[in-house]
C-alpha cells in the first residue's frame, strides 16, 4: 500500500524549515492512495515532477513536508539507516537510466538485490529471465547488451527479491512497441501474482492503461483520469 498526504517538495531546498519560504514547490500538497497489490500509472509533461515523486517514495530524496507511507513504513520519519533497510527489503526500483552494475553479468545483476535482501530464490529469478526473454544472456556482461535488453534486466532485478512495492520510471522507454507491450504486461502480471503494489511513470498511453488507476500530474498534484478498475 502507498499512502501520500500533503506532500510538498520544494526544488530550491530540501530542508523542512525552508520548505514554505524558498523556491518553487514542484510537488504541491500531493495526495495518493494505492491499495496493496494494486497498480497506478502517472503521466505528465516532461519536467512536471514524476521522477521526483518516485525518488521521494523510494526514500532517495527527502520531502519538505507531508506524510509518506509505503508498505506500512512511514518513511517521512526515517533516518538514512532505516531508509537503507527499507530500500533493500521493501521496494524494487526500475530507474530511467537502469543503474546496472557493469562488472557483473545478467544473472548476477538480477540476483544482486535479492542477495542484499537475503531473499534469493533462484527458481523465481530463472522464471523472470525466461519470461523477459533474457535467459540465454544470463552469463553475458550487461555492457554487451542493447538498451532494450538492459531495460529487461533492470525490470527483472526490481522484481527479484519479491518486493512489497515496485516503482518504475519509464520501464519500457527503450523498447520497441511489441516488446514494450510484452514487457509491461509481464511487469503488471508479476506484481499482481506477488501482491506487489506498482507505481509506474510512463509516456505511453497503452502502458498507462494497464494500471488499475491512471493519473495525470500537473501543478504538483495528481488527478485520476480513469475510474478504478476493481478486480473481482
Ligand atoms: N535536485 C534537483 N535540484 C533542482 N531541481 C531539480 C532537482 N531534481 C529535479 N529538479 C527539477 O524538478 C523538475 C522535475 O523534474 P523531474 O525529473 O521530476 O521531472 P519528470 O516529470 O520526471 O520529467 P521527465 O518526464 O522529463 O523525466 C525539473 O524542472 C527539474 O529540473
TrEMBL record:
InterPro entries: AAA+_ATPase, ABC_transporter-like_ATP-bd, ABC_transporter-like_CS, MacB-like_ATP-bd, P-loop_NTPase. Keywords: ATP-binding, Nucleotide-binding, Transport. Residues 2-232 form the ABC transporter domain. GO terms for molecular function: ATP binding. SMART domains: AAA. Signal peptide: none annotated. CDD domains: ABC_MJ0796_LolCDE_FtsE. Belongs to the ABC transporter superfamily. This is ABC transporter ATP-binding protein. It comes from Alteromonas arenosi. The lineage of its organism: Bacteria, Pseudomonadati, Pseudomonadota, Gammaproteobacteria, Alteromonadales.
Amino acid at each position: 500500500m502507498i499512502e501520500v498526504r500533503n506532500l510538498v517538495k520544494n526544488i530550491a531546498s530540501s530542508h523542512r524549515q525552508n520548505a514554505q519560504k524558498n523556491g518553487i514547490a514542484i510537488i504541491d500538497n500531493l495526495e495518493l492512495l494505492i491499495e496493496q497489490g494494486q497498480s497506478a500509472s502517472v503521466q505528465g509533461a516532461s519536467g512536471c515532477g514524476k521522477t521526483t515523486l518516485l525518488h521521494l517514495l523510494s526514500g532517495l530524496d527527502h520531502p519538505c513536508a507531508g506524510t509518506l507511507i509505503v508498505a506500512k513504513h512511514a518513511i517521512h520519519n526515517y533516518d538514512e539507516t532505516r531508509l537503507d533497510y527499507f530500500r533493500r527489503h521493501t521496494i524494487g526500483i526500475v530507474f530511467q537510466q537502469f543503474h546496472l552494475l557493469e562488472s557483473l553479468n545478467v544473472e548476477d545483476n538480477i540476483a544482486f538485490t535479492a542477495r542484499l535482501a537475503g531473499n534469493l530464490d533462484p527458481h523465481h529469478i530463472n522464471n523472470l529471465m525466461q519470461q523477459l526473454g533474457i535467459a540465454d544472456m544470463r552469463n553475458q556482461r550487461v555492457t554487451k547488451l542493447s538498451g532494450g535488453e538492459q531495460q529487461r534486466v533492470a525490470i527483472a532485478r526490481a522484481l527479484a527479491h519479491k518486493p512489497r512495492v515496485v516503482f518504475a520510471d519509464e520501464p519500457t522507454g527503450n523498447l520497441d512497441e511489441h516488446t514494450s507491450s510484452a514487457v509491461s504486461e509481464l511487469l503488471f502480471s508479476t506484481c499482481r501474482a506477488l501482491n506487489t503494489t506498482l507505481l509506474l511513470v510512463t509516456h505511453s498511453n497503452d502502458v498507462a492503461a494497464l494500471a488499475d488507476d491512471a493519473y495525470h500530474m500537473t501543478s504538483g498534484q495528481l488527478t485520476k483520469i480513469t475510474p478504478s478498475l476493481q478486480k473481482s
